[in-house]
Design brief:
By secondary structure, this protein is α+β, with helices and mostly antiparallel strands. Among the domains are: 6-86; 95-209, Beta Barrel (OB fold (Dihydrolipoamide Acetyltransferase, E2P)), CATH 2.40.50; 493-540; 543-695, no CATH class. Strands 1, 2, 3, 4, 5, 6, 7, 8 and 9 form a nine-stranded mixed sheet that branches. Strand 20, helix 23 and strand 21 (683-685) form a beta-alpha-beta unit. The radius of gyration is 29 Å and the shape is globular. The chain starts with 5 loop residues before the first helix and ends with a strand.
């Protein structure tokens, strides 16, 4: 393994710049630091750095450590202030500051509405808001939902709507272990949403599109039209569109899951792999013309124009932004006749992107992209040299596998933390998918060139369709194998950081043979093991009831140790996608895996009794005479839209708290809440306050 000593770090300045930048971004996100204090601290640090320039060279050299501290402090202040400014809620013209006095909102759609299961969804940008002071310019994005079969065909990318309805904040489900959708949207500047009915908005004749955006949309539409015409088959079309320009709306969801479980989802997510293929093709095409001086001069401009144009067509995702910025640095370095350190170039692209948008640091694609490339740069050569093969063909095949293996090392903690699974057959699937995807991508580019030539276009489309079909078959057949993926891996952020300590420690030990690095790696591994052991002990002692927040469905788990019993809507149990989205993260969070008989919980009809709590589920209207004495219960869960009033329950039960689950209609819940407030009853609304859990 290459030794990264002092000499190397001096030649990689952007790697050193990232060290204060990333903590500064984290401070700006999780600590409330007054903006004025940041400015004063930064100006003081900058002033002292300028004063140091007037000292003698000997004094500057002796106090160089102070210069380093001041420069790092200045970078931290820059990162904190940039993170603070990136949050639109700190801007005076944020839409959220005008909600109380709004009578109309003018928005521009940032995408053509996409059809979902029950609605059509589109992201929109707020332009103007009408208040008592008149029309005011505002900023901020929001999500719009339209009725599925009532959307006018004229509403497309760039359409402007005048909306007369109050914005609603984006909320999370509140289910344990669930994806933080509110934070995900906030990082994109989206804090509100609207469910629009007919008559609540008006389509304007104007279009909020620039000339560049209109040209971009026309190009994307043209490319999609060509692919859909000459590549038959829904699955094949979806993969072709995703592979060429990153259009994912036509991808089959089960197929995407298969790609994810087999470790090749990067094939259908535009990344450096695709940009590298195009970059390599451009170099090959321009190579014969390098002897011409004019070509050598315009070559960098051509490369940059094509790479950035492709990136814009692909949607400028963080993974492709990383690649295009890094390739841009490489091209500039080559045009100036300078060789660049690949890690320094990688760090330079990360530095620029994090200054542009600090929230990229929390983007999973950004994290996977940079850890994968850094891992390849650091570990590919040592892995490749560990096995010597004389046969050239076998040597080239082993080199391809060495790249795949090295990419897994630093991405492993990220994959385990976010996805809680590991694709066991990634080596086999990448060995087939990566070269095959290259042929498919080049075939699609060739199809764009010959789509107007009769016979050639049809023949090319059939070849591409055949290759994509074979690729899908390999992925789906591999996915069906029982040992294809190891799932349900509970992995916390602390464990992920410790795993990085294990990997880096072992790598340094292999490289330097220093005992302290091995001790550090083993200590980190012991920390992971201890955290896991403590978690298992706590899970075996748990005994609780969890009522989940799933729209229009009853769902609750009775948990005893690491076993559970589900009670809820049969439609939910039969829907694998809903189970994986709503229930699986929570069950992983609680460490429960097997539905089983519960030994310490008494269940009789709708009555659930533990050692400390008694819970009654009421899902139908009450009948029969009133009891002679009120029945004591700790909690009553109203589910399935029963036809009753809370006053009827208070006549029959002595209850400490009432739970209104998500299977009840919203109007009924609002009625019950008013009733509960008038009767001074404690209540919890699942759809508003999130999942409810109580120890039994």
């Amino acid at each position: 393994m290459r030794r990264y000593g002092k000499k190397y770090w001096r030649s990689a300045p952007f790697v050193r710049l990232l060290i204060p930048l990333i903590p500064g971004i984290l401070l700006g996100r999780y600590l409330v630091v007054p903006f004025a204090l940041l400015c004063i601290t930064g100006l003081v640090a900058l002033g002292l750095l300028l004063l140091f320039r007037f000292l003698s060279l000997a004094t500057q050299y002796r106090l160089r450590w102070i210069t380093g501290l001041l420069f790092n402090l200045l970078l931290i202040c820059l990162a904190v202030s940039r993170t603070w400014l990136q949050d639109l809620r700190h801007q005076p013209n944020w839409i959220g500051h005008h909600l109380q006095q709004t009578t109309g909102i003018l928005v521009t759609l940032q995408e053509t509405p996409v059809t979902k299961a029950n609605s059509c969804k589109a992201q929109a940008k707020t332009e103007w808001v009408h208040t008592q002071k008149g029309w005011l310019p505002v900023q901020g994005n929001l999500l719009l939902y339209f009725r599925k079969n009532k959307l006018p065909p004229d509403i497309t990318f760039g359409s402007q709507l005048l909306i007369q309805k109050n914005l609603q904040p984006i909320t999370n489900s509140g289910n344990p272990g669930a994806f933080d959708y509110r934070q995900y949207c906030a990082f994109q500047g989206i804090h509100h949403q609207l469910f629009l009915q007919d008559g609540e908005y008006r389509l304007l004749a104007t279009k909020g599109l620039s000339c560049f955006t209109r040209a971009l949309i026309r190009t994307q539409t043209k490319l999609l039209t060509i692919l859909r015409k000459w590549i038959p088959g829904k699955k094949e079309q979806g993969v072709a569109e995703a592979l060429l320009i990153g259009y994912r709306e036509d991808l089959d969801k089960d197929l995407v899951q298969a790609y994810s479980n087999t470790g090749v989802v990067h094939i259908i997510a535009i990344s450096g792999l695709h940009l590298g293929m195009i970059y390599g093709l451009l170099l090959l095409l321009l190579k014969p013309f390098r002897k011409y001086k004019a070509i050598r001069i315009i070559r960098p401009a051509v490369l940059l124009l094509v790479l950035w144009g492709f990136s814009y067509l692909a949607g400028m995702a963080p993974s492709i932004l990383r690649s295009v910025v890094m390739f841009s640095f490489i091209i500039f370095g080559e045009s100036l006749g300078r060789r660049t350190q690949i890690l320094n170039t990688l760090a330079a692209s990360a530095f620029c992107l994090l200054i542009y948008n600090p929230y990229f640091l929390w983007d999973v694609g950004f994290q996977l992209s940079y850890t994968a490339v850094a891992s390849i740069v650091i570990f590919r050569q040592p892995i490749y040299r560990s096995i010597y093969l004389e046969n050239p063909l076998l040597r080239n095949l082993w080199q391809l596998n060495a790249v795949t293996l090295s990419a897994q090392i630093l991405t492993l903690p990220v994959v385990l933390y976010y996805f809680h699974q590991f694709p066991n057959l990634f080596l086999f699937t990448n060995f087939i998918a990566v070269p095959l995807s290259g042929f498919i991508l080049y075939g699609e580019l060739f199809l764009l060139l010959v789509h107007k030539f009769i016979f050639v276009n049809e023949f090319t489309g059939k070849i591409i369709t055949f290759l994509i079909h074979q690729l899908n078959q390999v992925i789906e057949n591999t996915h069906r194998l029982p040992f294809a993926v190891t799932g349900n891996i509970a992995f916390s952020l602390a464990q992920a950081l410790l795993l990085y300590g294990v990997l880096i420690g072992f790598a340094l030990w292999i490289s330097t043979k220093k005992p302290m690095t091995l001790i550090a790696a083993l200590s980190a591994f012991a920390g992971i093991y201890c955290m896991r052991a403590i978690s298992v002990i706590e899970q075996k002692q748990q005994h609780k009831l969890v009522v989940y927040n799933i729209p229009r469905m009853q769902a609750m788990d009775i948990i005893e140790g690491r076993n559970f019993l589900f009670r809820g809507s049969p439609l939910l149990q039969d829907n694998t996608r809903l189970v994986n989205y709503h229930l699986a993260p929570a069950r992983l969070f609680w460490g429960i895996s097997q539905p089983d008989q519960l030994k310490h919980t008494r269940i009789s009809g709708n009555l659930i009794a533990g050692s400390r709590k008694t819970i009654l589920v009421i899902d139908r209207a009450l009948s029969g005479p009133l009891p002679a004495e009120k029945i004591p219960v700790d909690i009553i869960i109203l589910s399935g839209n029963p036809r009753l009033h809370l006053s009827q329950l208070t006549q029959r039960f002595i209850c400490a708290q009432y739970i209104f689950d998500s299977s009840n209609p919203l109007w009924k819940i609002q009625y019950w809440k008013k009733d509960a407030d008038s009767l001074h009853l404690r209540h919890h609304t699942i759809s508003e306050q999130g999942a409810f859990e109580v120890d039994l």
